[in-house]
Design goal:
This protein has 89 residues and is of the alpha+beta class. It has a domain at 7-68. It is 19% helix and 30% strand. The chain has one helix spanning 25-41; strands at residues 7-12, 19-22, 44-48, 54-58, 62-68. It has a three-stranded antiparallel β-sheet, covered by helices on one side. The chain has a two-stranded antiparallel ribbon with strand order 3-4. The protein is globular, with a radius of gyration of 12 Å.
Length: 89
């Protein structure tokens, strides 16, 4: 996986737009082999974001999840260049 593929894209069971996080390199390395297990078990994991914050994800509410490059038109939580912090800001 290239360094540019550090975005976790989650499609939630409740529908709506995907939730997008920019992960730290450490989280990507840790999550990549465990993502299928977390999805199958519906586990909860805490991930470090690129901006230094952390987020807990309950994979029991996630329909699909994948690591990819950040599309240019999408804003992602955890991006260092994102103004403000938290959801809805």
């Amino acid at each position: 996986m290239s360094d540019s593929q550090r975005t976790l894209i989650l499609h939630l069971a409740s529908g709506g737009e995907p939730v997008v996080f920019t992960l730290s390199p450490k989280s990507v390395k840790s999550l990549k082999p465990r993502l299928p297990v977390l999805m199958a078990s519906g586990g909860v994991d805490t991930l470090e974001l690129e901006d230094g914050n952390a987020v807990a994800v309950n994979f029991g509410h996630v329909v699909t999840a994948h690591l990819d490059e950040l599309p240019s038109h999408v804003r992602a939580y955890g991006s260092p260049n994102r103004k403000g912090s938290g959801f809805g800001v």
